[in-house]
Design a protein that fits this description.
The chain has 759 residues and is of the alpha+beta class. The chain has six domains: 18-85, Ubiquitin-like (UB roll); 88-162, Ubiquitin-like (UB roll), CATH 3.10.20.310; 167-255, membrane protein fhac (Ubiquitin-like (UB roll), Roll); 261-337, membrane protein fhac (Ubiquitin-like (UB roll)), CATH 3.10.20.310; 343-413, Ubiquitin-like (UB roll), CATH 3.10.20.310; 417-755, membrane protein fhac: a member of the omp85/tpsb transporter family (Porin, Beta Barrel). Strands 22-23-24-25-26-27-28-29-30-31-32-35-36-39-40-41 form a 16-stranded antiparallel barrel. A hairpin with an 8-residue loop joins strand 23 and strand 24 (448-456). The radius of gyration is 36 Å and the shape is globular.
Length: 759
């Protein structure tokens, strides 16, 4: 009887906490829809549940992170969940540091307006602010978080920053040096002793970079490894800070050890892929020479590329150094683990909101079904960069399994349709302005269409052009242009009207060719007051010519290359009808080298050379000769102002007449530095040097009359600084120049600008 009674009481207790659910309602829930909330429950209407199941459901909702509190009630089978949602953050301010800098809010605070109020996220943002200030060599920074509840129930959050003080390294000592000197790694480490006049540009200010303290010893040891010191040890620096004046003394304890020479180089392939001899041909380390860890890394990368080009996408090259301490030698072992061959399953294009997918795909050297190649992948990135359609591009390798991967191509569209401006100011010609409406990627098709109008007190130039670099997505290209122009000189004006058309073909990834035809009608107009001008040098003529050219370009970007070479050679033959008969050659060469690994920031070195030559085969008009000066040849002088001349027979003339040269050669060396990276603004320094001259001493007209040249050979130089800016309407260059080797009557130009051109 007692057992039966206990069972009845137990059943009654269970029944008292069990509910048959007839309906489910939600009160105060905003961020989760009712349909989603219902799917999160592990029961349905009509089920019988207990308090434990309800508690588990409440915990499930609470874990979503949207609520300050959550509870539930059951009444007559109606289950109601109640929520108190977290308030929103409607305003975010930063005081005392980087005020008004929206990029800092996005990159460091990482909390946007409309986000839910979350104490943990605020504390994380506080830590990020302090870490960012530490990178500016400041310690003891304090960040307080002030919150204000607004009338609409949201919060205004203010990060109040009290910046700490900068620590200046007054003394930096090293112990244990014998083989290397501290000057050897001075450019590598971030924390250095303050130089005399450290505040001056180019001098070391001595500011302590706290985040780099742990990495500087590794940088020093790496340099030792580059000189063969495999046993070197560099302890963490001992820092003694004087908080009265925020100065510090630092010291390093270094044990150099011995220099190891290479006794043998061994290749160990886990699976034979290529002959060991092919791998050894790539290795720059040499037996009998001191070990160099930098060369070792480069050798490993070359081996990795060789194997990866055989479709072994997941290849690993693992180093193994077998040291013989007694003989101070080391056997270098390259362990090559190729893995499995990998095929491309799919190529996914993203970020191209304007450019058509096919325009992107036709530049890729890897497609669905292709076997993986690391070189093809690298070349694809560079090909996308050379288009000039994108601010940035990446190709991610998404592993599907050991034998398959997807390629995710991510691009960021750049403005390709813009209004281009160009011009300059000179002591002779005054202000020159050109305006062009141009779209290099019209409607995202990759087709270039442009209309240009140039006007100044001396020139007028109007043109229309259209070109397609990939006709029907093939390796052929085509172009057509029509133009009219006039250039006013002292006492005459040249007028030209013409058109050009041509067909190109891309032979390899880097080499393309072109053949084109051009026709122009050229005439001269003279001042009414002119009575002494030798007009037979300025006879009207028609030109009909064919141009053949070849171009090599393996650069990695259209506007701002950081590596690669661009070179071209063209030949023009005129005389297929028309009056002008000549042969013309144009040669260009440009080399780009990023120096970030040397300087620690984005420095780019550029060398540009141009050589032009023309030979008369019957009649060479003055307008077809070459002139030098300005952007593209020698800055510091007005455009086209440098030229051989003839004696002016006008007794009232103040200068001899420019008639162009037959040979020009110019060189430019530039260094480009980041100035305001956030604004995509850079500074460039440059030195130009050029030559222009004529092969003979006399100029002959079509009538056979000759006139002697003077100043046949002219050499000039220029130097200066400039601003390179990727503005919202396109790349802009502002050049401030000074001439070198200036002579009397030279026409100099201290300022020029252009827009839309390659840097």
């Amino acid at each position: 009887m007692r057992i039966f009674l206990a069972i009845l009481l137990t059943l009654a207790a269970i029944n008292a906490s069990a509910y048959t659910i007839k309906s489910i309602k939600y009160n105060g829930m905003v961020h989760i829809s009712e349909s989603v909330a219902l799917r999160m429950l592990n029961f349905d209407i009509g089920d019988t549940i207990d308090d434990k199941i309800i508690d588990e459901s409440i915990k499930t909702y609470y874990k979503q992170g949207y609520f300050e509190d959550a509870w539930a009630e059951v009444k007559d089978g109606e289950l109601t969940f109640y929520f108190k949602e977290k308030p929103l953050i409607s305003q975010i301010e930063l005081k005392g540091w980087k005020e008004g800098d929206t990029e800092v809010k996005d990159a460091i605070i990482q909390i946007k307006r409309g986000s839910l109020y979350d104490e943990k996220k605020l504390e994380a943002a506080k830590k990020r602010i302090i870490e960012a200030i530490n990178q500016d060599a400041k310690i003891d920074s304090v960040v307080e978080i002030e919150k204000e509840l607004l009338e609409n129930g949201s919060y205004k959050v203010t990060f109040v920053v009290n910046e700490g003080e900068e620590i200046i390294i007054e003394n930096l000592q090293y112990s244990g040096l014998s083989g290397l000197e501290s000057d050897d790694w001075d450019d590598l480490i971030a924390n250095k002793e303050r130089d005399f006049m450290g505040w001056f540009w180019g001098r070391n200010d001595g500011k302590m970079r706290l985040n780099d303290l742990a990495y500087d010893p590794l940088r020093i040891r790496d340099l030792y490894m580059q000189h063969g010191y495999l046993d070197s040890e560099v302890d963490a620096p001992f820092v003694k800070v004087n908080f009265d004046n925020y100065t510090a003394d630092m010291s390093y304890q270094i044990e150099e050890g011995n220099v190891y020479t290479i006794s043998a180089i061994t290749i160990n392939q886990a699976k034979h892929v290529v002959d060991d001899e092919l791998i050894k041909e790539l290795i720059k380390l040499e037996i009998g020479e001191p070990f160099n860890v930098k060369t070792f890394r480069e050798d490993s990368e070359r081996i990795k590329t060789l194997i990866a080009d055989k479709s072994y996408a997941f290849v690993q090259v693992v180093p193994d150094l077998k040291k013989d301490k007694e003989n101070r030698t080391v056997e270098v072992v390259f362990k090559v683990m190729p893995g499995e061959r990998v095929k491309i399953r799919n190529v996914i294009i993203s970020g191209n909101s304007r450019t058509l997918d096919r325009v992107v795909r036709r530049e890729l050297y890897l497609g669905p079904g292709d076997m993986y190649s690391l070189t093809d992948l690298t070349d694809s990135r560079s090909a996308l960069g050379r288009l000039g359609f994108f601010d940035a591009n990446t190709i991610e390798e998404k592993r599907v399994d050991n034998n398959t991967m997807d390629l995710i191509v991510k691009v960021t569209e750049a403005p390709t349709g813009n209004i281009q401006l160009g011009g300059g100011y000179g002591s002779y010609g005054g202000l020159l302005v050109s305006v062009a409406v141009d779209d290099r990627n019209i409607w995202g098709s990759g087709i270039n269409v442009g209309v240009k109008a140039e006007r100044s007190s001396l020139t007028s130039n109007y043109s229309f052009n259209i070109s397609n670099p990939r006709l029907n997505d093939s390796d052929f290209s085509g172009n057509f242009s029509i133009y009219t122009s006039d250039y006013e000189y002292n006492d005459y004006t040249t007028i030209s009207n013409g058109f050009t058309t041509g067909l190109g073909h891309r032979f390899t990834r880097y080499i393309s060719g072109y053949i084109g035809y051009g026709y122009s009608s050229n005439s001269y107009e003279f001042d009414d007051t002119n009575t002494t001008l030798d007009t037979y040098f300025f006879e009207d003529y028609a030109k009909s010519s064919i141009t053949v050219s070849v171009k090599y370009d393996d650069t990695d970007d259209y506007y701002l290359p950081r590596k690669g070479i661009s070179a071209s050679q063209s030949f023009e033959v005129s005389g297929l009808g028309g009056d002008a008969e000549f042969f013309k050659s144009r040669t260009t060469f440009s080399a780009y080298k990023g120096l970030a690994s040397w300087f620690g920031f984005d420095v780019i070195a550029r060398y540009k050379a141009r050589i032009n030559y023309v030979k008369e085969n019957g009649y060479l008009p003055v307008a077809e000769r070459f002139y030098m000066g300005g952007i593209g040849s020698v800055r510091g002088y007005e455009s086209y102002s440098l030229s051989p001349t003839i004696v002016n027979t006008d007794v009232n003339a103040t200068e001899d007449r420019r008639v162009g040269g037959e040979l020009t050669a110019s060189n430019s060396f530039e260094l480009s530095f980041p100035l305001v990276p956030k604004a995509k603004m850079r500074m460039v320094t440059f030195v130009d040097y050029g030559y222009i001259g004529a092969s003979g001493n006399e100029l002959e007209s079509s009538s056979g009359t000759t006139t002697p040249y003077i100043a046949n050979n002219i050499t000039r130089g220029g130097y200066g600084v400039g601003l390179e800016w990727f503005s919202p309407v396109g790349p802009i260059q502002l050049m401030f120049s000074q001439p070198l080797g200036e002579e009397e009557d030279d026409k100099t130009a201290v300022f020029e600008f252009t827009m839309g051109q390659r840097f």
